[in-house]
Amino acid sequence: MSTTLTCLYSAFAVGSFTGAQLATKVGAAPLDSQLVADYGLAVGSDSTGNIGATVTRTIVLNMNPTVAATATAALGGGNNGTGILVTITAGGSGYAAPPVVTAQTQAGHPAPIRPALLHAVIVAGVVTQIVIDDPGLG
Q1: What are φ and ψ of residue 19, in 5° steps?
Q2: Is 59 exposed, middle or buried (0-12, 13-18, 19+ CB in 10 A)?
Q3: How many Å apart are CA 4 and CA 64, to the nearest integer?
């Protein structure tokens, strides 16, 4: 499965408008950063060039983090007075949006009455904290 999305735009300058002038206009067109963030994407690269009157802009969007984050949770101690201790074992890198955090039941143990709810906080593409929104029950 590919982890990038490549958008390729081509235009052709006509009349007195040169390829270099068109390349400046095409390269200056803003990318909808909110749309990119809403889908958890990050801009990997954005380049515009021209050969004569033909202008090409290539935008590469990364769909997944470069390195996945990992964390462990244990009963006892506890973050936020919840009785659950969450430790980030690797913050990962390349996150454009916080990843979904799911609390898993340890093998051989019964499912909780109400699963814990958690969310991740990212800073500069790295998971820096796991916040316990609801410690769950059972």
Answers
A1: -60, -40
A2: middle
A3: 8
What region, left, alpha or beta, does residue 63 occupy, with left being phi > 0 and alpha being psi -120 to 50 degrees?
alpha
C-alpha 67/C-alpha 129 separation (Å) is 16
Contact, 117 vs 100, CB < 8 A?
A: no
Q: Which residues pair with 117 in a beta bridge?
A: 102, 134
What CA–CA distance (Å, rounded) separates 134 from 24? 51
Instruction: State which of 22-26, 78-82, 106-110 shows the largest mean pLDDT.
Output: 22-26
Query: Across 13-51, where does the E strand assignment appear?
Result: 42-51
| Band of residue 79 on the pLDDT scale cut at 50, 70, 90 | low
- Rounded to whole angstroms, the Cα distance separating 127 from 90 reads 8
Q: Which residues contact 96 (CB under 8 A, 6 or more apart)?
A: 36, 37, 40, 41, 42, 62, 125
H/E stretch holding 117 reads strand 117-123
Per cent of the chain over pLDDT 70 is 93
Backbone angles phi, psi at 34, to 5 degrees: -70, -40
